[in-house]
Design a protein that fits this description.
Blueprint lengths: L7 E5 L7 H8 L5 E8 L5 E9 L2 H11 L3 E2 L2 E2 L1 E4 L3 H6 L6 E5 L7 H8 L5 E8 L7 E9 L2 H11 L3 E2 L2 E2 L1 E4 L3 H18 L1 E5 L7 H8 L5 E10 L5 E11 L6
Antiparallel strand pairs: 1-3, 1-6, 2-3, 4-5, 7-9, 7-12, 8-9, 10-11, 13-15, 14-15
């Protein structure tokens, strides 16, 4: 009987033009494949990851050992055993891809590799630039280790290391979808935190009066008094309001 979990591989860092057929043909040389598929965006491009299900665990292991860290369509891919949702939660703290911030602007990919190489085998390391021919990087980069233990060790040893007057900030690199989700949650929280509900207002209060009363504490984006119509079409204050202030957790 096929072991659906141990013979299933998760492949990430796939280029946007990758198709399921590309994944199948690339991995078919290591054994009989039950299925190969990539996840697509609504516009038909690859989301950057996919799955390869082999008939046997041995074939899956061969493919993982051969393909992890290899270049596929110009991109260095990461191949690992697929984890079921429960196991995925338990292993959340195991990661091999690091985000590195406060990198010296003159650092190159080779400099980043040289800094992290003593701590384990590196699959890839890159500093992010505005363009390929830019002389300086944007102050951050990514380092992917072959083993999660090495990544954790490098993080512990190098975090807060001072280089050219700046302390390195190192943490787990979030996948794009996870990062987008985190940013959405942060913005939603910021929106909730800067909104106020005000009740027991006098019936003659207006939007302008409400805004003026609260602007002594900071910039107010909007102030709105909730109104209702009486049977004779006269606007009357419901005696509550909502105020939004201008505040951002990113400033």
């Amino acid at each position: 009987m096929r072991d659906k979990v141990s013979s299933n591989l998760f492949v990430k860092n796939l280029p946007g033009e990758t198709k399921s057929a590309d994944l199948y043909h690339t991995f078919a040389g290591f054994g009989r494949i039950f299925s190969a598929r990539v996840k697509y965006n609504p516009n038909g491009t690859c989301k950057g990851y996919g799955y390869v299900q082999y008939e046997s665990k041995d074939d899956a292991d061969k493919a993982l050992n051969a393909m992890n860290g290899e270049t596929f369509k110009g991109s260095k891919i990461t191949v690992e055993h697929f984890l079921a949702s429960g196991a995925r939660t338990a292993s959340f703290m195991k990661y091999n891809n690091l985000f590195v911030k406060n990198v010296p602007r003159k650092f190159t990919d080779k400099d980043l590799i040289g800094l992290f190489k003593p701590h384990g085998e590196i699959v890839s390391a890159v500093v992010i630039k505005e363009s390929p021919d830019a002389l300086e990087n944007k102050g951050f980069g990514f380092v992917c280790f072959k083993n999660a233990e090495d990544a954790k060790n490098a993080e512990e040893k190098l975090k807060n290391l001072s280089i050219e007057g700046q302390n390195l900030f190192i943490c787990r690199a979030l996948p794009k979808e996870e990062r987008r989700k985190q940013l959405r949650e942060e913005r939603l929280k910021a929106f909730r935190d800067c909104n106020l509900y005000v009740k027991e207002l006098p019936e003659d209060v207006t939007d302008e009066k409400l805004k003026a009363a609260f602007e002594v504490f900071g910039k107010v984006v909007s102030a709105r008094v909730m109104l209702e119509l009486s049977l004779i079409h006269i606007c009357r204050c419901r005696r509550y309001a909502v105020c939004r202030s201008r505040w951002s957790p990113y400033h």
